[in-house]
Each structure stands twice: as structure tokens, then as C-alpha cells.
Amino acid sequence: MFVKIFDEEHELDLEAKVNDFLKDIDDKKIIDIKYNIACLYDGRGQIYCYSCMIIIKD
Questions:
Q1: How far apart, in whole angstroms, are the C-alpha atoms of residue 13 and residue 2?
Q2: pTM summary value
Q3: In terms of residue numbers, what domain contains 12?
Q4: Number of structural domains the chain divides into
């Protein structure tokens, strides 16, 4: 088993990278997909972090 982690500042960038990765993976090998959004304020504005972890059978 192994994981692949993606992290982007924009949700559409994350979506594109995950979809690009998944097109080469047999869907029967995917165990789970986790998705998370984090938001923080840096004094100038809000910063978003969109992340995804894919757990795959080796």
C-alpha cells in the first residue's frame, strides 16, 4: 500500500492534478481518497490550502 498526496492553493488546480494522476491508476487499486481544506489569515488576507490524499494498493 502507498499514498499520494496533493496540495494546492486553488481547488481547480487540485482537481486537475488529482484527475491527471487518477487516469493512470486502476480504480480497483484505490482504497480511499481523503480531502481537506485549511484556511488561515496571514495579516493581509485569507490563504486556502486544498489537499487530497489517495491511498492505493501496491
A1: 23
A2: 0.85
A3: 2-56
A4: 1
